[in-house]
């Protein structure tokens, strides 16, 4: 959503290797900052770039965009070297807190699956992810709860329209969503909450599971 992070930029420290090992003590000297167009409000925001080497992985470009006008933010991670012709599959059997805290880098071409749930999140070619297994579970739970909230709003709207129809049948205009659909939305909400309950149990280590990247 920002300008190409691989575009040429002026490094803060010209004597530094382009891809240095990540160090908290020297992170300010490794950062580059460029102005970028915000795709949300079309004002000028700022992208901070960090070219770094992740141990046991590869060289990557970390980017963080912020807009001071609309407060839109976007974080991304992109590989800095060529793609391998074939991918690999990594499976972790999550049994304890140490497993939950395992950090992983997922490129835009990586998918994630949890066999016990019959769950798979397909690749997203627009951006990569740097997080932990627990962090991933949190993000899935947050996204599902947002959907639950939308379903609840739809149910409330249907119930309100149904009540209005009973009170003023002549004045009521039929909505594009039929009142008879309310039970289906209730069922959808129940299934989503049951799924969140399973995810929460896995996050709390009440249920062991296989995490496949």
TrEMBL record:
Extract the signal peptide range.
none
Q: Which residue ranges does the record annotate as region Disordered?
A: 160-183
- GO MF annotation, one: zinc ion binding
Residues folding into a coiled coil are: none
Q: Return the SMART domains for the record.
A: Zpr1 (SM00709)
Record keyword DNA-binding present: no
Question: What are the residue boundaries of the Zinc finger ZPR1-type domain, all occurrences included?
Answer: 36-213
Q: Which family is this protein grouped under?
A: Belongs to the ZPR1 family.
- This protein is called Zinc finger ZPR1-type domain-containing protein
**What taxonomic classification does the UniProt entry list for its organism?**
Eukaryota, Metazoa, Spiralia, Gnathifera, Rotifera
């Amino acid at each position: 959503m920002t300008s190409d992070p691989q575009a040429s930029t002026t490094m803060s420290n010209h004597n530094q290797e382009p891809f240095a090992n990540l160090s908290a003590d020297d992170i300010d000297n490794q950062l580059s900052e460029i102005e970028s167009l915000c795709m949300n409000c079309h004002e000028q925001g700022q992208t901070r770039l960090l070219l770094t080497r992740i141990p046991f992985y590869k060289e990557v470009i970390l980017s963080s965009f912020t807009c001071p006008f609309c407060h839109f933010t976007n974080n991304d991670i992109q590989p800095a070297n060529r793609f391998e012709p074939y991918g690999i599959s990594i499976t972790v059997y999550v049994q304890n807190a140490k497993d939950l805290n395992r950090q992983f880098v997922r490129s835009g071409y990586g998918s994630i699956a949890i066999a016990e749930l019959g769950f798979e999140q397909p690749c997203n070619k627009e951006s990569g992810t740097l997080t932990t297994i627990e962090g991933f579970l949190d993000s899935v739970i947050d996204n599902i709860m947002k959907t639950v909230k939308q379903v609840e709003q739809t149910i409330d709207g249907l119930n309100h329209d149904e009540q209005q129809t009973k009170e003023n049948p002549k004045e009521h205009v039929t909505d594009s969503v039929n009142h008879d659909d309310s039970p289906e939305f209730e069922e959808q909400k129940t299934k989503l909450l049951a799924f969140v309950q399973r995810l929460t149990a896995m996050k709390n280590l009440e249920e062991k599971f296989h995490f496949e990247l």
